[in-house]
User: Which sequence fits this backbone?
């Protein structure tokens, strides 16, 4: 997420002198029993609670599900169920409508189904649609 928005989230680790010194350390100090970042974790034990240092990885969640159900409901509905979405014929419109209705109403979270459908539809329009010359760009659809 950071790099996608031109934000470097690991700035301290980009110092070339620091990186060179770490590259020269023996491997057994860097990885221990299939646990990566061994030195970094050990060095932080005096600063951070162990629950933080040794917790499982967590992603950087974005509120895509909420955006799809609220702010982007209209544009997504237009893209997936509008007259132009019949161009490729790969989706069953009734199923897509059901998924979208359930998602918007909050009954189900279909973000993992709807987001790829949306991306496919926009991609298809840009590269394969017969109407591509008179259609808007993929970027302007959700603007």
Assistant:
């Amino acid at each position: 997420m950071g790099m996608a928005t031109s934000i470097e989230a690991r700035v301290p680790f980009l110092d070339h002198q620091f990186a060179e010194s770490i590259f020269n350390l023996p491997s057994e100090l860097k990885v221990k029993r299939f646990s990566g970042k061994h030195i970094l974790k050990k060095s932080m034990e005096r600063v951070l609670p162990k629950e933080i240092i040794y917790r499982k990885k967590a992603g950087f969640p974005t509120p895509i599900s909420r955006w799809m159900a609220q702010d982007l409901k209209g544009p997504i509905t237009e893209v997936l169920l509008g007259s132009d979405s019949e161009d490729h014929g790969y989706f069953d419109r009734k199923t897509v409508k059901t998924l979208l209705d359930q998602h918007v109403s909050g009954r189900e979270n279909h973000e993992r189904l709807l987001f790829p459908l949306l991306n496919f539809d926009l991609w298809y329009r840009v590269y394969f649609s017969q109407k591509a010359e008179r259609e808007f760009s993929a970027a302007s659809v959700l603007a």
Observations:
- The chain has two domains: 3-53, 64-141.
- The two ends are 20 Å apart (CA to CA).
- The mean pLDDT is 82.
